[in-house]
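User: Okay, second chain of the day. Same drill as before: sequence in, structure tokens out.
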Amino acid sequence: MSKTIKILGTGCPKCQSMTGVVKDVISENNIDATIEKVEDIMEIMKYNVMSTPALVVDDVITIKGRVPSKEEVLALVK
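Assistant: Same drill. Structure tokens below.
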């Protein structure tokens, strides 16, 4: 089953780093997932997240306010 991954962030360097880490993990591990970048502040606020970047996996906020390690992301999307 495909995972839905959303990266909430306005495009700051940390947000870009998180996007890179997530894309690497997905491609390196052949994980079936769609990655969506959410940069609209109103959309981000719907998740009630005050610190970005935030990682949302299947509509569950898993990480916020920091860039995760590849191992962390892999554990969340497996």
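The CA atoms of residues 3 and 33 lie 4 Å apart.

User: Thanks, on to the next one.
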